[in-house]
Amino acid sequence: MAAYDYRCETDGVFELSFPMGTAPGTAPCPGCGSDSPRVFSAPATKASGGGGAPAGMPAGPGGRPPVPMAASMRPNFNNMNL
Ligand SMILES: [Zn+2]
Question: What is the whole-number distance in angstroms between the Cα of residue 31 and the centre of ligand 1?
C-alpha cells in the first residue's frame, strides 16, 4: 500500500492509501464527500504509521563506503628494474 494526497476545496489535503499504481485521479473527501483531485507534489512512497518495509538499504557501520582493497597492498613498481 502507498499513501496518496488529495486536495478538497473545502477541507484541504487528505491522505488515502491504495495498492501501488492503482490510485485514481480523484477520490471522495472523507469530510464532505466531494470529488477531490490528486496532489502530485509529494512522493507516493512515504510511510504513514509504520507496518511497512523500511525504505532503502541500511547504511554501513560508520556510514563509510566499502573499501575493496587496502592501498598498502599494491605492489611497489618503483623498485622494479626493467
Ligand atoms: Zn471535503
Answer: 5
Query: Is pLDDT at 21 greater than 80 in this prediction?
Result: yes
Contact indicator for 8, 14 with CB cutoff of 8 Å: yes
In a domain, 8, yes or no: yes
User: What's the predicted TM-score (pTM) here?
Assistant: 0.49
CATH number of the CATH domain containing 37: 2.20.28
CA 5 to ligand 1 centroid distance, Å: 13
Residue 10 CA, ligand 1 centroid: distance in Å: 5
Domain count, the chain: 1
Give residue 64 CA to ligand 1 midpoint distance, Å: 48
Contacts of 55 (CB under 8 A, 6+ apart): 45, 47
The residue segments making up the domain with residue 27 are 1-42
